[in-house]
UniProtKB/TrEMBL annotation:
SUPFAM superfamilies, A to Z: Phosphoglycerate mutase-like (SSF53254)
BP-aspect Gene Ontology terms: negative regulation of glycolytic process; regulation of pentose-phosphate shunt
Molecular function GO labels: fructose-2,6-bisphosphate 2-phosphatase activity
Protein name (database record): Histidine phosphatase family protein
Matching InterPro entries: His_Pase_superF_clade-1, His_PPase_superfam, PG/BPGM_mutase_AS, Phosphoglycerate_Mutase
Amino acid sequence: MRTFYLMRHGQTRFNVQQRIQGASDSPLTELGIEQAKAAKHYFDQKGVVFDSIYTSTQERACDTAELASGRTDYVRLKGLKEQDFGAFEGQQEYLNPPLQGDIGYGDYFVTYGGESYLDVRCRMEKTIRQLLEAEKEPSTLLIVSHGAAIAQFYRQVIADYPRIRMTNCAILKFTYEKNRFDLLSVTDPVQDKKVYIKEEAH
């Protein structure tokens, strides 16, 4: 069995400015840096040691991975990037269309040169499955990605997924065994609290 922690990046300048930053990038704020350090404290307290670390190619994810792990020997993968919002990149978030339930923004951004929700789901699942299959068993991994990309991933691979809002540096703990994903918990390391815990079958 492989265990992996799928984590959102820390707060960025665009987050503060309420700008859409999918495929574009902006640096971590001082708070974002502290959030990533809180994640490292969480992992240290739990005695979690990573066999491998993977991150999106975007700066905010790479910096978060370094701060949360204390390491620089990570692998950058384009398949872990945030959803591309096309012409809406860098614009104010109030320009986003209404969310369409569990499919997020659906295909809205395709017209403007961006990705559909299915594009994001498929590339995230493909990327994460491939990197997991390449790892020895058992192993423990850290994967740092982005809010929309992570949400689309777990909606793709988990049948009864939690309806939660992911904070910056939220940590989702998964297991992967026999080609099956299982989401065990979601933690806010800044508040040091579990946002979601899977109920065990009795």
